[in-house]
Amino acid sequence: MKLLWISGTAAFILALGAVSASAQPVISAKSGTIALVEGKVYLNDQLVEPSLTKFPDIKENGVVRTEEGRTEVLLTPGVSLHLGENGSFRLVTNRLIDTRLELLTGSAVVDALEIAKDTNVTVVCKEGTVAIAKAGHFRFDTNPARIKVFAGVADVTLKGEHIEVPAAKMLSLSGDTASLEKFDREDTDSLDNWARRRGEEMAVANVSAAKHTYDTYGSVGPGGGWTFNPYFGLYTYIPYSGRYCDPYYGYCYWSPGYVNRLYYQPGLYNNYGGGGGYRGGPGYSTMGATSSGYSGAMASSSGVSSSHGASAGMGSSAASSAGSSSVGHGSSGGGGGGGGGGGRGH
User: Fold this and answer.
1) Which CATH number does the domain housing residue 75 bear?
2) Nearest-CA neighbor of 317 among 306, 326, 327, 302?
């Protein structure tokens, strides 16, 4: 059974071999790349077709809307947006120093793994203007209009009043009241769970992408960046140095030098697409793609909860094994701990 899985995986890699040359390698210049569509998703009334080689950029004042579908959009490095069914938003500005969007209808989840220096993300929802001030998970709804903070802190301006919304609190973004309320962070829906699964898949894809960047002397600038991993067929985040861990679920993203130094040892992994051994060639390693390769320690130091179900798609067995031995949430810390230098990331 395992041999069949490996054979299928190898075939998938060969099929994606041409993708790495044509796909966008790193996104850091602007916000607003549509990284994934499922079902019917429109950009300015044009249907967006699923693709492994074309990822549309949303221009300023561009409108994205879904019908029976959902989409993942990359904002500043380390910050992504997941728009649910029958939702829409307008990207007011797409500059990294001032990314601003307005949620028009439906619901969206903003996952902020890292808020890089000199970048800003602002979400306008009905009467509220929300600045994503710290790493965290933020849920926005238009009906009723509100924000839920699963982790992190949101700075909200509502009718001229500034309100800081901490974790486990929600705030109405319409009406006359502006009081904070508690909510049950375990009470989630399909959009919350999908956003979580996508985060897990990105984290698994980060490992081989970071190692590939190290092996090919790729550059990761301060603040990190989005990079395409053709082995998994998705974009993942690579920090500039050290590691950054999800502040709620705990899965981690590693810089090129850090992941190479800590987790790649001779004989412990296969490397498809060219090269092998400790300093493999330019191919993408399967480390993190097998059920035994992506260990719980690599997922996080505090553990990734398995109570919300296994990750879907490529790398699902890795994500589920990473959390199978732990319970509960919590951040395992972020940043720092790096070492190493140069443009490849620390």
Assistant:
1) 2.60.120.1440
2) 306
Partner residues linked to 109 by β-bridges? 82, 139
One domain for residues 40 and 173: yes
330 in any annotated domain:
no
Same domain, 59 and 122: yes
Range of the domain at 121: 31-182
Other CB atoms within 10 A of residue 98 CB? 14
- Mean pLDDT for 107-112 is 97
Domain identity same for 144 and 200: no
Please report, as a single letter, which amino acid is at residue 305. S
The secondary element (H helix, E strand) that includes residue 260 is helix 256-263
Cβ pair 79, 121 in contact under 8 A: yes
In terms of domains, do 44 and 178 share one? yes
How many other β-carbons are positioned within 10 Å of the β-carbon of residue 184? 8
> Domain for residue 56, yes or no?
yes
Q: Count up the domains in the chain and report the number.
A: 2
Q: How many angstroms separate the CA atoms of 260 and 331, rounded?
A: 22
Q: Give domain status of residue 67, yes or no.
A: yes
- In a shared domain, residues 217 and 178: no
Do residues 215 and 315 both lie within one domain? yes
| Band (175; pLDDT cuts 50, 70, 90) | confident
Residue spans of beta strands (DSSP E) within the chain = 26-27, 33-43, 46-47, 62-74, 79-83, 88-95, 98-105, 107-112, 121-125, 128-132, 136-142, 145-151, 154-158, 161-165, 169-172, 180-182, 225-229, 234-238, 243-245, 252-254
What is the CA 28 to chain-centroid distance, rounded? 14
Do 175 and 201 fall within a single domain? no
What is the tens place of the pLDDT at every residue in 292-329? 333 333 444 333 333 333 333 333 333 333 333 332 33
Q: How far is the C-alpha of 185 from the C-alpha of 197, rounded, in Å?
A: 16
**Degrees, nearest 5: CA angle 199-314-217:** 75
Place of tokens 């031995």: 325
Per residue in 63-73, pLDDT tens? 999 999 999 99
